[in-house]
Amino acid sequence: MSKNRKMADKSGSAGINTRLAHIGNDPQDFHGYVNPPVVRASTILYPDYETMRDRSQKYHYGIDGTPTTEALKDALSELEGAAGTALVPSGLAAISVSILCFAKAGMHLLVVDSLYGPTRLFCDTVLSPLGVEVEYFSPFVGDDFSKLMRPNTGIVMLEAPGSNSMEMCDVPLLAGIAHDRNKDCIVMMDNTWASPLFFRPLDHGVDVSIHALTKYPAGHADVLMGGISTNAKHSAQLQSSTRAMGMCVGGDDAYLVLRSMRSMGVRMRHQEKTTLQIYQWLQSQKEVSRVLYPALPDDPGHELWARDFSGASSLFTVVLKDRSPDQAGVFLNALRIFGLGYSWAGYESLAVMPKFDDRQICRGPQDGTSIRLQIGLEDAEDLIADIDQALAAMVAGDS
Ligand SMILES: Cc1ncc(COP(=O)(O)O)c(C=O)c1O
Q1: What percentage of the chain's residues is helix, strand, coil (to nearest 5)?
Q2: How far apart are CA 190 and CA 228, in angstroms?
């Protein structure tokens, strides 16, 4: 084992940027090169019949993994404190595959209402027809969650903060209740917003931590990937079910994600700092009724965020006071630095107008039109100037 690898293995107590610099591959496994090789593989040859019969070599077929995907999986398991990680082709696949690995016909699934819209679409259009009963609950349910648990509740699906509407739920409380009521219930969480750098779900009672690696880990708007990390209890099933479903990712994409993860800590802290600067400016704008972001002291989710999370990501929602969607559209059209586009957590700032009409409970702000902003790596002053001139264009559109 190389000196770098030993350091990475013992790095539980080291700072996050030190760990990010050394987790994953061991340079001595590949001639001392700092980065792992990019292996593109379907077929892997055996030297002879006996090795093939006994499966006595490390790699067998591309779906099972390569040194490149293994390096990324090891890095993610280390960050999540997980027994194992599976890689899948997108963040949405990480959600759907996690659920499919563990769901059974006749099972009852409890899903937080504020979660990422496509997760709901998956639950309603794919899971329900398979005989899984899906029930949505309020992120503010608290202790009453025990009343929702049934003997056949097999999966609880959480996300915090909620997508676009940003409600926090009490993750350790809900996970504790789920396991108390049904010890085999599997608690899953979409942890994309915080990433394991700012919140480690498995340390808070969650069994399966799901991450759209497309966001902060990839960070450059050029890769789609998802990661599913589990505790020891569920690791074997995750590995065998994802293998049975043929889930895998290519070596080039895995390499890109691992490469970007080296700078993820620095990017996230920089983006957090810029986000807070922008918030401070937005606070004094009369066109803004409020900002939804749990890192703010007056946000309803602040107490939970401050108790459990060690940082805030660069995604928040701003409510344009009493503005219609078309008026807010004038604001969006006027933006020059912020791009109009889906996804987030990359180096570039983005804006979208989220919809909440698929929700049963968390129907989004009613005091204006919501705009979700993703703050990239640009300078805060430039982003503020961009928002300022776009707000002015919206106001000018009134006359
Ligand atoms: C919270 C959350 N989870 C999952 C996803 C899905 O990730 P992907 O775009 O890689 O499918 C997204 C995408 O925006 C997201 O915001």
Answers
A1: 45, 15, 40
A2: 9
Residue range(s) in the chain whose domain bears CATH number 3.90.1150.10: 264-396
In the reported structure, the alpha carbon of residue 322 is separated from the centroid of ligand 1 by a whole-number distance in angstroms of 29
Q: How far apart are CA 100 and CA 49, in angstroms?
A: 36
What are the residue ranges of CATH 3.40.640.10 in the chain?
35-261
- For residue 352, the cross-strand partners are 372
With cut-offs at 50, 70 and 90, classify the pLDDT of residue 213. very high
CA-CA distances (angstroms) from residue 102 to 155, 156, 186, 236?
A: 8, 11, 8, 12
Q: Which residues' Cβ are closer than 6 Å to ligand 1?
A: 90-92, 116, 163, 190, 192, 212, 214, 224, 226, 343
- Calculate the average pLDDT of the chain: 96
Atom of ligand 1 nearest to the CA of 226: 10
Which residues, other chains included, contact 397 with Cβ-Cβ below 8 Å and sequence gap of 6+? 327, 330
**Closest C-alpha among 274, 286, 315, 299 to residue 388:** 286
Q: 50-76 pLDDT, tens per residue?
A: 999 999 999 999 999 999 999 999 999
CA nearest ligand 1 atom 13, residue: 343
Q: Which two tokens stand for residue 312?
A: 């805030």
Condensed to tens digits (0 to 9), the pLDDT of residues 274-306 reads 999 999 999 999 999 999 999 999 999 999 999
Q: Report phi then psi at 228, rounded to 5.
A: -125, 115
pLDDT of residue 9: 55
Per-residue confidence (pLDDT) for residue 7, from 0 to 100: 57
Whether the full predicted model's pTM is greater than 0.90, yes or no, is yes
* Spatial separation of the C-alpha atoms in residues 47 and 269, rounded to whole Å: 49
- Take atom 15 of ligand 1 and give the residue whose Cα is closest: 116
CATH architecture of the region 35-261: 3-Layer(aba) Sandwich (3.40)
Tell me the residue ranges of DSSP E strands in the chain: 84-88, 108-112, 133-137, 153-159, 186-190, 208-212, 226-230, 288-292, 315-321, 339-340, 350-352, 368-374
CATH topology of domain 264-396: Aspartate Aminotransferase, domain 1 (3.90.1150)
